[in-house]
Design goal:
It is a single chain. The chain is α+β, with helices and mostly antiparallel strands and 338 residues long. The protein is built from 9 helices and 20 strands. A hairpin with a 2-residue loop joins strand 17 and strand 18.
């Protein structure tokens, strides 16, 4: 069991922010995780679980232990005429899981193609895109309870999934380490092509009877055209959540801005596109020193090189204040701030 001291965290966060951890260890299975948690030399250190580091912003060094979740594996647990139950290790790259499902003709994840990160982080965020959320195909997960070392199985209702929310971001935060996630996928999928630009992308390609692969490829093309590659420019994808506001607030904004991007969100409420709000407030393409807002997608804050986490955080605060002053809407950060 290798433990690195004074470890560099820059390779382990997609923002490419320079930060250090007092100690860092990797685990590929339950035994290794228990070994790290029980190591006497690490006793008393605060702990941080990292997967792909795609939804985290380090504003400081971590004065404790970072645990890199690298649990592998893709296994079919069972299947029937309609569905297959696919279990994935928490350390599997999310997009690899999606491609595996698509290649086998199992539907439900194709709209979530190219979302960065690892599988273990997906239920924490209840990741979603193009009209689909993780909870739609989620069956269960297994996690280690940190305080007593027992394994616990969580079903959907126990995860308290919400919009980019779950039990693991609230009551269960830092109390559990997710080791694997099981998805219930369809052998006869009903494709969802009505959200966003998927239909337009398929039409552009001359596809009238799309397959799972067609939908996945369309989503990949759309995301690639709008979102920067973290390997090229540091970012964590969408930095802010889309706010849900009372209908009266949305109507007031629509009076001044008839083109406001708004979607029904339950009786009396509307979901606004945070990217639209930020762009209208003039932040799209903003750049200051080595950081800024992406030129093609206002939801994405970027590290052009050499930015600190505090630079990015302070910029996000300026945007929050700006949106509130202009629209009377409170934005919320989606990225986890350390």
């Amino acid at each position: 069991m290798e433990i690195l001291r004074n470890a560099d965290l820059k390779p382990y966060n997609t923002f490419g922010i320079a930060a250090r951890a007092e100690a860092l260890g990797r685990f590929h299975d339950l035994g290794q995780l228990r070994g790290l948690l029980g190591a006497p030399e690490l006793s008393g250190l605060s702990r941080l679980i990292l997967g792909g580091g795609s939804n985290v912003l380090f504003t400081r060094n971590w004065d404790g232990l970072v645990l890199l979740n690298e649990v592998p594996g893709l296994d079919v647990l069972r299947e029937d005429d309609e569905h297959v139950w696919l279990r994935s290790g928490a350390g599997v790259v999310w997009h690899d899981l999606v491609l595996h499902a698509v290649a086998n003709g199992w539907g439900g994840l194709e709209n979530l193609s190219l979302i960065p990160g690892r599988v273990g982080a997906a239920p924490m965020q209840n990741i979603g895109a193009y009209g689909v959320e993780l909870k739609d195909t989620f069956d269960s997960l297994e996690a280690l309870k940190v305080d007593d070392g027992t394994m616990v199985t969580f079903r959907k209702e126990q995860c308290h999934f919400g919009y980019r929310e779950s039990f693991f971001k609230r009551e269960g935060k830092d109390r559990f380490v997710i080791l694997n996630v099981t998805f219930k996928l369809s052998k006869r999928p009903a494709l969802n092509t009505s959200y966003g630009n998927i239909g337009q992308e398929l039409a552009k390609r001359g596809i009238t009877a799309p397959t799972l692969r067609d939908v996945s490829d369309a989503v990949i093309a759309i995301r690639s055209s709008k979102l920067p590659d973290p390997k090229v420019i540091g970012n964590a994808g969408s930095f802010f959540k889309n706010p849900v506001v009372p209908l009266a607030v949305a109507d007031a904004i629509r009076t001044e801005y008839p083109d406001v991007a708004a979607y029904p969100a339950g009786e009396g409420y509307v979901k606004l596109a945070a990217g639209w709000l930020i762009e209208k407030a003039g932040w799209k393409g903003f750049r200051e020193d080595g950081f800024g807002v992406h030129k093609d997608q206002a939801l994405v804050l970027v590290n052009h090189g050499g930015a600190t986490g505090r630079n990015i955080f302070d910029l996000s605060t300026r945007i929050l204040v700006s949106i509130h002053e202009r629209f009377g809407v409170e934005l919320e950060r989606e990225v986890n701030i350390i």
